[in-house]
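Summary of Year 1 activities. Much of the first year was spent building the evaluation harness for sequence design. The harness presents a backbone, in tokenized form, and records the residue chosen at every position. We chose the following record to illustrate the format because it has been used consistently in internal testing since the harness was completed.
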């Protein structure tokens, strides 16, 4: 995980955070996983990243790493995140632009939790344009609002590999322990019932309008109230024809997993 330990004085202008004019690989896929908190974005992004061999970038995970590292950005984000609000566009945009200009993103990448405002969506278009990357494919996981609170308050996460569990539907084999690396699972601070309510409100008011921005573009709506395996099948069904058509450079070795 890359931590951006900038002081505020280092920030410079927003535009300078992206690498203007850098020529990235033709045919790289840029995927946006969109959906309310608790819609399963984190689970699906791990599966897609493994399938296609592209990095999954979660702005939420990046911000939590900044908080852990005690950076200026982390300190600025901490109180906002624990209240369920959104970190400022300026800070998140800068962090994102720097991350996607890293070499591992040259053949495409997946964004989980970004963009969350119309300003961020406009900024992302500018970054992709500057880096000669394709316009994004939006995968919208649509989950009824009344299912979200229960999902979030029963969620647990491995702090090391970031795998997500759900005590109701996908518990770990040993209670409280990650199946993959044995680390003790944690409950995210903002998964308390009170903060979850605020996060869902923020999504409805500020983030849902971003969908209108992408509606006439490469936009796909997927029912998110199904099993993770079913949702992943739906996603591979959407992306396989795109990969076949574009000959996307990221995905030449992509093989649909037998057991999603
Ligand atoms: P979820 O999608 O379940 O809300 P995330 O891990 O994506 O969880 O985000 C956790 C918190 O991090 C958000 O509630 C918000 O405070 C902050 N955050 C993450 N991504 C962004 C973003 N793109 N813009 C502003 N704030 C963000």
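For this record, the design step produced the sequence shown next.
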């Amino acid at each position: 995980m890359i931590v951006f330990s900038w002081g505020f004085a280092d920030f410079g202008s927003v535009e300078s955070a992206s690498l203007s004019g850098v020529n990235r690989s033709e045919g790289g896929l840029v995927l946006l996983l969109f959906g309310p908190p608790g819609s399963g974005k984190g689970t699906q992004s791990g599966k897609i990243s493994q399938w296609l061999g592209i990095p999954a970038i979660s702005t939420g995970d990046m911000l939590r790493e900044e908080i852990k590292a005690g950076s200026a950005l982390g300190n600025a984000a901490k109180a906002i995140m624990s209240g369920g609000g959104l970190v400022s566009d300026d800070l998140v945009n800068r962090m994102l632009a720097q991350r996607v200009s890293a070499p591992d993103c040259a053949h495409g990448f997946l964004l989980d939790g970004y963009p969350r405002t119309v300003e961020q969506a406009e900024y992302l278009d500018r970054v992709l344009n500057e880096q000669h990357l394709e316009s994004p494919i939006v995968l919208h996981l649509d989950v009824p609002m009344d299912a979200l609170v229960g999902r979030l308050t029963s969620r647990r996460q491995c702090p090391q590999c970031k795998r997500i569990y759900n005590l109701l539907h996908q518990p770990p084999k040993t209670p409280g322990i990650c199946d993959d690396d044995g680390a003790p699972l944690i409950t995210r601070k903002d998964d308390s019932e009170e903060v979850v309510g605020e996060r869902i409100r923020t999504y409805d008011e500020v983030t849902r309008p971003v969908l209108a921005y992408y509606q006439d573009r490469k936009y796909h709506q997927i029912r998110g109230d199904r099993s993770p395996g079913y949702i992943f099948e739906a996603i591979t069904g959407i992306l396989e024809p795109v990969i076949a058509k574009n000959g996307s450079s990221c995905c030449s070795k992509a093989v649909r997993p037998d057991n999603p």
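The pocket of adenosine-5'-diphosphate is lined by residues 37-38, 41, 58-60, 63, 80-81, 84-87, 92, 113-114, 116, 120, 190, 199 (CB under 6 Å). Quantitative recovery figures across the full test set are reported in Table 2.
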